[in-house]
Structure formats: structure tokens, C-alpha cells
Amino acid sequence: MTKRIVIIGGGFAGLNVARHIRSKAYTITLVDRNNYIFFPPLLYQVATGFLEPSNICYPYRKMLRKKTRCPI
Ligand SMILES: Cc1cc2nc3c(=O)[nH]c(=O)nc-3n(C[C@H](O)[C@H](O)[C@H](O)COP(=O)(O)OP(=O)(O)OC[C@H]3O[C@@H](n4cnc5c(N)ncnc54)[C@H](O)[C@@H]3O)c2cc1C
What we know:
about 25% strand
């Protein structure tokens, strides 16, 4: 039986943990209030109109497509 790891928050830390656990001994559940990760270091570029918000946001379902079965 596989063990389940629940990661609360898919920011820098949570997403990296999810991506680096390679063992099939674990089922990973990633929980975040958003369905996308965004990249805070480039927030000022969005605030000043140099980048679109979509340039610094990326959906988890695409990021983790090969890794997990995603319900969304
Ligand atoms: C404007 C800005 C610029 C930055 N620039 C740099 C930089 O140049 N270099 C650098 O090293 N660091 C930078 N940082 C800091 C860096 O972004 C943080 O150190 C890093 O994101 C912290 O990672 P984390 O995983 O702890 O938290 P976060 O990346 O903030 O992730 C937290 C996650 O938890 C989720 N969450 C929060 N509350 C809940 C809830 N109640 N339920 C479900 N999910 C929840 C959030 O949606 C988020 O996805 C910057 C930060 C900001 C704001």
C-alpha cells in the first residue's frame, strides 16, 4: 500500500517538494487555494505593465501533468 503525502501550499517550497519526490511508494496530494503557481520575483514587471499576469502564472495541472493524475 502506498503512503500519502499531502503538501499544503504549492508555492516555491511545496511545488519543489512535489516535483522531487520520485518514489512510487508515495501518492502526492498538492493543495493550494489557486490552481496555478505564480512567480513573485517578477511581480513588479506585471505591476509596471512590462509583463502580462499570464506570463508569471502557470497552471499546476500542466506543470505536474507527467507526475500525477490531476482532478482539475
Ligand atoms: C515581490 C516579491 C519578489 C520576490 N523576489 C524574490 C527573488 O528575487 N528571489 C528570491 O529568492 N525570492 C524572492 N521572493 C521571495 C520568494 O517568493 C519567497 O521566499 C518564496 O515564494 C517562499 O516560498 P514558500 O513556498 O514558502 O511560499 P509561497 O511561494 O508564497 O507559497 C505559498 C503557497 O501557499 C498557498 N496558500 C497560502 N495560503 C493558503 C491556504 N489557506 N490554503 C491553500 N493554499 C494556501 C499560496 O497560494 C501559495 O501558492 C520574492 C517575493 C515577493 C513577494
